[in-house]
Amino acid sequence: MKTVLLFASLLVVLYAKKITMQTRRTGSLRAKLIATKQLQHYVEKQRAKRVGILKRGSEPFRDFYDDFYIGEVDFGTPGQPLLLVMDTDSSNLWAIDNNCDLDACNGYPISGYTRRKFNTNESSTFHAEEEDFEIEYGSGFCAGYLATDTISLAQINISKLEFGITTYLDDVFGYMPMDGIFGLGWPSIAVDNVNISEGGDAGVITFGGFDDDHCESDVDY
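-> structure tokens emitted (221 positions)
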């Protein structure tokens, strides 16, 4: 389920041409909470959660306030369009199971987003694997099982790709206007101080080449 599996599938296509994927900004949760006068309630709820975590141990937890960028990915056959966080701070791909009826899976109204979930029964190419998965993010925890199916993104179709089907989400994910996470990073990358925005409302991810419109020809790493 690591990003390397997805990128290995992409390489054949990427050698042939450069492909771009449109993204858009979700907007700040903090701003939405302030506008609807629910910020204090949210802060108190997260504070209570921290108290419970400290009683159990030293598990890290961070509030979700800032915005992020999402892109559309089709899952299954026929494709079901879901909006995923383009996350350079993780290396896993997962979508929310249509059968998960937790509040966090359905999404909270304060997010301003009508959540879409992956209906595995509607995909003719879906195959569930007999293996569970768990991921601990800085903001919370998710769990479910592994599966394979066809996904499509940025004009690329990938069959039998392994990814996660999420059947449990921590409460914090219910506030996020997204349907899953698309991990673009490597497991060894740093997890702090990731700056993904310079104030724009949208962006582009370029696979298989450089963004000639926004980058100089000489790129240093």
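The chain has one domain: 3-207.
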